[in-house]
UniProtKB/TrEMBL annotation:
InterPro entries linked to this entry: Aldolase_TIM, DUS-like_FMN-bd, tRNA_hU_synthase_CS
GO biological process assignments: mRNA processing
Gene Ontology MF term list: flavin adenine dinucleotide binding; tRNA dihydrouridine synthase activity
Protein name: DUS-like FMN-binding domain-containing protein
Pfam families: Dus
Keyword line: Flavoprotein, FMN, mRNA processing, Oxidoreductase, tRNA processing
Catalytic activity: a 5,6-dihydrouridine in mRNA + NAD(+) = a uridine in mRNA + NADH + H(+); a 5,6-dihydrouridine in mRNA + NADP(+) = a uridine in mRNA + NADPH + H(+)
Obligatory cofactor(s): FMN
Segments of this protein annotated with the region Disordered: 114-159
């Protein structure tokens, strides 16, 4: 009987179109809501990216990768970047309602998954103005195979919904253009774009000339973006993630100068270099930065996004195209799917993806304690934080009703609908 039910359920998914694959810039231009996982050192690694992509996070970002190390050391490459054919989600997305977006839609060719992705196959090594649209995808699994994800539901929520594959961005930090271009070239076949970190506030980073040190070096930022374009093509997607400056004139200069190098989009964290994350984010400053962009490329807002109300307020008050969450997703990986706290199945999914991909215990433990914090009393937190193996954590959570070991039956799963992620 069970078998029959499975077959009936599977038939619902038979008529799905092939998901459209497009650059993040196009997603931001064309769709009403684009949700982004922020780069998170140590945390936005493959298992966590896969997890949030099960819950309406359309674009995910790697942790900041030090470009120089990455291009120089095989060990750094192994530890800093891992991906999987199936890590990107597949989503029903709603086109923007405005006439402008509708016009853009008609000019964009969405590509199927078998588009050539090797640098030598790219046709985009041509000069073009900053408003030239990108219509190519850059990541295809090396063996050219299809990936196996399905959207959360088999039928489109509205008659306008389009089926779209999510995107993965590698974030890099570099004090110079050459290292960035070298690292970009290595990672390019596996990602949909590169983001230049212009916002890390830590003093070691500042002294290394990376992160926030770039906020007042607009020409260097422009040259770095250009160097990647020189290497990979003028339209190869390179975005920047910035913090606002206490003197907004500097923000204006930074953005306008970066636009000269055809940045693909701009992410704006609405805190200055000296503001701690406990201080509230400034939506007026984000709005100012959005105005500096003058609609030339899409924008993403970041800072203090804890639920969908925050996301809506950000869009309404700043005019950005998409929103990015960091600590909000750590606390609740299903935030963008509308959950107000981590649902049980998200924790179960996390345990399963971590087992399938492999994740060191310290990170596994840390993620679980972030995501279950709001569900635990103080004494439980103390107990849970003292556990020192994955088995202990899973057992403890099983006693509290989490069924990670059970058959994976969550509808928000992928093509094999829960039986196995990687088989
Ligand atoms: C644990 C942690 C790691 C972070 N790592 C990065 C990083 O690698 N690159 C980056 O640009 N920002 C990094 N950030 C900053 C976030 O991406 C984000 O800009 C910041 O947390 C504000 O967003 P939030 O208010 O949603 O947390 C990190 C933040 C946290 C909490």
């Amino acid at each position: 009987m069970q078998h029959r039910d499975d077959e009936d359920a599977a038939a619902l998914w038979d008529d799905l179109p092939v998901p459209e694959v497009m650059p993040v810039r196009t997603m931001l231009d064309e769709f009403e809501t684009v949700n982004v996982l922020a780069p998170l050192v140590r945390c936005s690694k493959l298992p966590f990216r896969h997890l949030v992509s099960l819950y309406e996070t359309h674009v995910t970002t790697t942790p900041m990768i030090l470009a120089e190390e990455f291009s120089r050391s095989q060990q750094a490459r192994i530890s800093d970047f891992t991906t999987s054919r199936n890590e990107r989600g597949v989503f029903w997305m709603e086109p923007r309602k405005t006439g402008a977006a509708a016009a853009m839609t008609s000019g964009v060719a969405s590509l199927s998954l078998d588009t050539a992705a090797h640098p030598e196959d790219r046709e985009d090594n041509i000069e073009a103005g900053p408003s030239r649209r990108v219509d190519k995808t850059y990541y295809v699994p090396p063996d050219g195979g299809q990936h196996d994800r399905l959207p959360p539901r088999p039928t489109p929520p509205t008659k306008h919904s389009r089926l779209v594959r999510g995107a993965l961005i590698a974030q890099m930090a570099s004090p110079n253009a050459a290292s960035l271009a070298d690292a970009a070239e290595l990672v390019a076949p596996y990602v949909d774009g590169l983001d230049l970190n212009c916002g890390c506030p830590q003093s070691w980073a500042y002294h290394e000339g990376i992160g926030c040190a770039l906020l007042r070096k607009p020409e260097l930022v422009r040259d770095m973006v250009r160097a990647v374009h020189d290497r990979l093509g003028w339209n190869w997607p390179v975005s920047i993630k910035i913090r606002v400056d206490s003197d907004l004139k500097n923000t204006d200069t930074l953005i306008r100068t970066a636009l000269q190098a055809n940045v693909s989009h701009v992410t704006i964290h609405g805190r200055t270099r000296h503001q701690a994350s406990t201080e509230p984010v400034s939506l007026p400053d984000i709005k100012f930065a959005v105005e500096c962009v003058r609609g030339e490329v899409p924008t993403v807002a970041n800072g203090d996004l804890w639920d969908l109300t925050d996301a809506k307020r950000m869009v309404d008050e700043t005019g950005v195209n998409g929103t990015m969450a960091a600590r909000g997703l750590l606390a609740n990986p299903a935030l963008f799917a509308g959950y107000t706290e981590t649902p049980h199945h998200a924790a179960e999914n996390f345990i399963n993806v971590s087992n399938d991909y492999g994740l060191i215990f310290s990170l596994f433990h840390r993620h679980l304690s972030y995501m279950l914090e709001s569900r635990m009393y103080k004494a439980e937190k103390t107990y849970f934080n003292a556990l020192n193996s994955s088995a202990q954590c899973v057992e403890y959570l099983a006693d509290r009703g989490l069924d990670a070991a059970g058959r994976r039956k969550i509808p928000m799963w992928d093509a094999r609908r829960g039986y196995s992620l990687l088989a």
